[in-house]
Write a structure and sequence with these properties.
Length: 382
């Protein structure tokens, strides 16, 4: 084995010190590859990394995944392993997810306790919802006969190592929209001569907030937020153009389709009422993450067996997960592990003072190992 407990912590801290944004994870990837090669694991390096470890003769194959990218956030902790890449930070714990998976690969390669194949997926660019799709499009991953796929995300503020998950929807989808209102600019003292795009955009925003509750039930879990309002108006010039940008979360594909339909319908109505042109661009970045029945039941049973505290039916998360594209391709389960309740481990994901709890590394690695041993047949003659 390459790592003892302290060695794995050092590996995590090193990743934390040199975080890299999505699709730029060059150093991170080279660190991972180096270890996989040392462990004699078959390595396929593309945008991400696939490590394939085969043991025995069984044809059964499962995949376990970690995300490896960081966020465009300036770290405000004072740790001695604080980010050295200014403006970039591991504020979502992907450094820890990566270290847990590397730790599991280390143990499994030396134990060879299973009969079958385990695929280690080190996925780039999770934060923008682009990495999983990109890896699938590369071809190697999507053509593997993977029977089950699993992923961990840490959950700050929850008891250390507490496992929570649910069958069915676990994370919402995220769609981004951009609405352009083309009115007519004019002298601010004579607004009747123009078509005030700011006033029209305000009317539109009010109407968008009627979608949840008046068009779709408020129980749907849908969230629609206008997050940017950009106009070309200036002092004494009425705006002729406004761009609105926003974010919509949904818990089903049907709801996502409804949201788009209503945004377009309302925009067309407002355009007609004000005699202006309004164009809508609606793009889904993350689809809903769905956990399949069999892998989810397996995770819950195993967690109980190895003595983790388990919440088997947690409320769906409002955040989105790129794992959605992987569990859309292969039956899978995303589960959450508590990062600890005390400072700094209770700081929210994506905050500038977040930190992954190193005490979770061993728990996570060992759970990965137990999962592989549980889901693949046991090797004979052990
Ligand atoms: Zn994140
Ligand atoms: Zn994350």
């Amino acid at each position: 084995m390459i790592f003892d407990k302290k060695g794995l912590i050092r590996f995590r801290k090193d990743l934390h010190k040199f975080p890299e944004l999505g699709f730029m994870e060059k150093r991170t990837k080279s660190k991972i590859c180096k270890i996989l090669y040392k462990l004699n694991i078959e390595v396929h390096e593309g945008l991400g990394i696939l490590g394939i470890l085969k043991s025995g003769n069984s044809k059964k194959m499962i995949a376990i995944r970690a995300d490896i990218d960081a966020l465009p956030i300036t770290e405000t902790t004072n740790f001695n392993y604080q980010s050295k890449n200014s403006g970039v930070m591991h504020a979502c714990g992907h450094d820890g997810h990566t270290a847990m998976l590397v730790g599991a690969a280390d143990i499994l390669a030396s134990k060879q306790s299973f009969d079958g194949t385990v695929v280690f997926i080190f996925q780039p660019n999770e934060e923008n919802g682009l990495g999983a799709k990109a890896m699938l499009n590369e071809g190697i991953l999507s053509n593997l006969p993977i029977e089950e796929i699993y992923a961990i995300h840490n959950l700050p503020g929850e008891p250390l190592g507490q496992l929570s998950t649910r069958e069915g929807l676990i994370c919402s989808s995220e769609s981004l929209f951009e609405i352009e209102i083309k009115g007519q600019s004019c002298h601010a003292s004579m607004p009747q001569m123009g078509k005030d795009a700011i006033l029209i955009a305000s009317e539109l925003i009010q109407n968008l907030q009627k979608i949840v509750s008046r068009k779709i039930s408020s129980n749907s879990g849908i969230v629609i937020s206008v997050t940017e309002f950009i106009s070309n108006g200036t002092r004494n010039v009425l705006a002729g153009k406004v761009i609105l940008k926003g974010d919509a979360r949904a818990r089903s594909k049907e709801d996502r389709i409804y949201i788009e339909k209503f945004i377009r319908q309302i925009s067309n109505g407002v355009a007609l009422a004000n005699d202006v042109s309004i164009t809508v661009n609606f793009k889904t970045e993350f689809i809903e993450t769905l956990n399949a029945k069999k892998p989810t039941e397996a995770i819950i049973k195993l967690a109980e067996r190895v003595g983790l505290k388990v919440i088997p039916n947690i409320n769906p998360m409002s955040f989105s997960e790129d794992f959605a594209y992987l569990s859309n391709r292969f039956p899978g389960c995303l589960f959450l592990l508590g990062n600890g309740e005390k400072e700094p481990y209770c700081k929210p994901l994506h905050s500038s003072d977040y930190d992954f709890n190193d005490d979770l590394l061993e728990i996570g690695s060992k759970f990965w190992v137990s999962l592989v041993e549980d889901r693949l047949p046991q090797k004979k003659n052990l």
